Amino acid sequence: MPTRGLVAGPNMRYFQRRYFNMAEVAMHNTADDLWVTYLGNVYNLTSLAKEYKGSVLMKPILEAAGQDISHWFDRSTGDIRTHIDPLTGCLKYYTPRGRFVHIPPQLPRSDWANDFGQPWWRRSEYEVGLLSYKTRLIRIINTLTSQEQTLEVGALETMWEILHRYLPYNAHAASYTWKFNGVNLDMDKTLEQNGIADEDQEFDQLNMDPELYTPALLLYFNDDLTEL
């Protein structure tokens, strides 16, 4: 059975997007589905929450679920921020929202074990992608059905990544040729690289609503019903 449509490209069953926006991250805001962002990356801490379920040390992380926690970190080191502890005069991690998982206690304790290896914020296993700092709106119009969908996409996403976003609305998206102004889009390139300029800033300067001028991508059916 074929796993994709007629448009040559990656197998969407195993394709993984690189970029996520904050609206997507914000949807993962529970102990059973916990994402955060920090220092430009997106992390899925659900397994950490399960491992430490019921622990008071998970409380600050649970409170920050679905949010950006870059302010917890020193950007120059990638580690948790530090300060001089007024109680001991020693350099300690700075955790104003309370001590959390893998942060040592202020004073020595018999129940503290540091045999966990790397702390969670240094483990690549939790990373799921990159945070899109700049997003834009596009309209995708299926010329076969006349259905239209507006998507918020990252400025650095390739057309394949945008197609992947669109799959929930059209499982046969890879069976279409994607065009803008009558020109076939290069699916390995971004919108900007395909000549679809991001004019949001110009519209803002002119006090014009950029959503009224959202570029439209047209999809032309390739006579194939492969479902991804």
TrEMBL record:
GO terms for biological process: cilium movement. Keywords: Cell projection, Cytoplasm, Cytoskeleton, Heme, Iron, Metal-binding. Residues 17-132 form the Cytochrome b5 heme-binding domain. GO terms for molecular function: metal ion binding. The keyword Cytoplasm applies. Its main location: cytoplasm. It is found in: Cytoplasm, Cytoskeleton, Cilium axoneme. The keyword Signal does not apply. GO terms for cellular component: axoneme. It comes from the Eukaryota. Pfam families: Cyt-b5 (PF00173). InterPro entries: Cyt_B5-like_heme/steroid-bd, Cyt_B5-like_heme/steroid_sf, Cytochrome_b5_domain. Radial spoke stalk protein that binds heme under oxidizing conditions. Required for the coordinated beating of multiple cilia maybe by functioning in a redox signaling pathway. Belongs to the cytochrome b5 family. This is Cytochrome b5 domain-containing protein 1.
